[in-house]
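Protocol step 4 of 6: structure prediction from sequence.
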Amino acid sequence: MPHVLHSELTMSGPEQSMLGGALLGAGLPAEAQRHLELAGRDFQSDALAEQHLREAQSLAPDHAAVLIGLYRFYFYKGRLDEALRVAEICLTKAARDNGLDANWRKVRRSDAEFSSFAAILPRFYLFALKAYAYLRMRVGDIDEGHAAIEKLLELDPSDKVNAGVLHDVWRRIGQVDDD
């Protein structure tokens, strides 16, 4: 699979600040926040950073900030199977928080305000599905990843979450990289 920078697949500044303020920080216990900060500080020590993330998770197991912290840790450490498990948890949480079907294949564009930049929870769903799609492809489940990309493009036809980048990657799979 051609290399794609993860930064192409993450949130932009405005998206991150919106999610950060309205979704990620709300309701997070101070002690869990402290452990997230310590995990960031100790990122180079895998064991210590992961211990802090697990402490945060024990204090706020279903909080988006904790889940995203775990996802990023596993992703950047190259622990893609674990990152995928966290992405699946995020997708389940986002479906529940949006009142959507638990099976992403059954979700329809009319089920939530997927096209609205201001609709925080639907955007979190889209980002969780994007992470899921990307990681499925990275672990070799190309068909599942492609199906999730197609669902993203159906839910977000204006492609606010840049699923088109993933679609381009999918189209290039198996082609010789001239770079």
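Step 5 (inspection) to follow. The two ends are 13 Å apart (CA to CA).
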